[in-house]
Backbone:
């Protein structure tokens, strides 16, 4: 039967002032699966993603990762977990503009204490995997949007995280570029066994997921899924 | 009508036996639905009757050994068909719209109707995406066409879901 989910959000409530962003939102992510969070603008997708990743703290409810209560952890324990187990891809790559693309991908490994040469070697392999070796020595500003997003995907996967959180990773790309990024991203995530939590309102992007959860008014309309 | 026109178009490239014709149709257009032999021969019989194809004589041949060739009338028929746009069919909305309205009228959860449909659409989109990404250029173009259509339907589902309260008020008024 169903394996234990890797990441669980239970009845999350979160308000920004008088705005209720999450209203008893619950969702589960299983190891190695690609889950799409869909739903209209302002429904709470990004807020839910940030809570799942331990970036935002819910007012009520609980987030459990591999049996550990994220909401009860100390800040530094949570940040350490984020660095070692999670990867992130956002709509606009958010690469460090002063570093080359290769150095950007090596950065999480360097921050984790890896020696420079090993980190660069591994980063180069990931750039190749994402088919953007040609921008290795360029700064992010000199790469196209699509290339930048592939570099961002490489940076998210280089530490071999167990979960990658992606918020509209192709939101700024045209259809063909966006789909190529998704194709490479999902294939690479599957190879490493990483689960992906993918926020998107584009059905063609969501089509790369295994399952979808629809967020509406801060709540998840869950569907039974056979596992 | 599409099958007839497709067979005619294939014949315009050169005369063929019914069997070869079926094979090239299946290869190009029959991904999900290969033609039955019966359908091929009945279509050819109709085209023959309408003077759009003719049989090239092959002495002593049975029906499956007949070679078919397109006539001048057939060529202009293909041309006319290609020049004629297809009717944009709003087939899905009308069925779904009916379901949503009936759900609201009968006290069922209309949002569930929409969510169920969305899940079904996405399921198909996943299959098509897999097939497209693993396929050749022909697969890519065929799947993309289907994907864009399903996406349009999904957008309609989304805006309908956003207006469901409004619709409920109108339907129940
Ligand atoms: N930092 C914040 N301060 C105040 N309100 C916020 C903040 N972040 C989100 N909100 C509000 O919370 C609600 C949910 O926002 P969220 O960003 O999660 O939506 P979303 O589903 O990601 O939308 P989009 O598709 O537009 O990105 C919205 O009403 C939004 O305005
Ligand atoms: Mg968002």
Residues:
């Amino acid at each position: 039967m169903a394996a234990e989910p890797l990441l669980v959000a239970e009845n999350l409530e979160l308000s920004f002032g008088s705005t209720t962003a999450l209203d008893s939102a619950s969702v589960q992510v299983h190891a190695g699966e690609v889950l799409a969070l869909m739903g209209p603008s302002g429904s709470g997708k990004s807020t839910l993603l940030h809570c799942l990743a331990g970036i935002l703290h819910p007012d009520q409810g609980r987030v459990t990762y591999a049996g550990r209560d994220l909401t009860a952890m100390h800040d530094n324990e949570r940040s350490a977990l984020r660095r070692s187990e999670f990867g992130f891809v956002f709509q606009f790559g958010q690469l460090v503009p002063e570093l080359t693309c290769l150095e950007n991908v090596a950065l999480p490994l360097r921050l984790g204490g890896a020696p420079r040469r090993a980190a660069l070697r591994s980063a180069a392999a990931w750039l190749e995997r994402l088919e953007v070796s040609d921008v290795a020595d360029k700064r992010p500003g000199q790469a196209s949007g699509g290339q930048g997003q592939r570099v961002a995907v490489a940076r998210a996967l280089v530490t071999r995280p167990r979960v990658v959180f992606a918020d509209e990773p192709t939101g700024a790309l045209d259809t063909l570029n966006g789909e190529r990024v998704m194709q490479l991203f999902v294939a690479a995530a599957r190879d490493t066994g990483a689960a992906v939590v993918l926020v998107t309102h584009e059905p063609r992007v969501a089509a790369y997921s295994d399952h979808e959860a629809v967020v509406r008014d801060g709540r998840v309309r869950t569907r039974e899924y056979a596992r | 009508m599409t099958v007839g026109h497709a067979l005619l178009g294939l014949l315009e490239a050169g005369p063929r036996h019914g069997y070869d014709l079926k094979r090239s149709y299946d290869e190009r257009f029959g991904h999900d639905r290969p033609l039955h032999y019966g359908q091929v021969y009945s279509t050819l019989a109709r085209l023959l009757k309408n003077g759009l194809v003719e049989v090239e004589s092959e002495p002593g041949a049975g029906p499956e050994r007949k070679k078919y060739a397109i006539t001048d009338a057939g060529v202009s028929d293909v041309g006319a068909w290609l020049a004629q746009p297809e009717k944009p069919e709003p087939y899905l909305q009308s069925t779904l719209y009916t379901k949503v309205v009936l759900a609201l009228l009968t006290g069922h959860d209309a949002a569930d109707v929409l969510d169920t449909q969305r899940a079904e659409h996405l399921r198909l989109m996943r299959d098509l995406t897999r097939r497209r990404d693993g396929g050749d250029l022909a697969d890519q173009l065929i799947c993309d066409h289907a994907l864009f259509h399903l996406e349009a339907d999904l957008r309609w589902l989304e805006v309908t879901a956003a207006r469901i309260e409004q619709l409920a008020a109108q339907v129940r008024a």
Q: What stands out?
A: The CA atoms of residues 50 and 68 of chain B lie 14 Å apart. The helical segments of chain B are 2-12, 18-29, 37-49, 72-83, 91-106, 110-133, 137-162, 164-172.
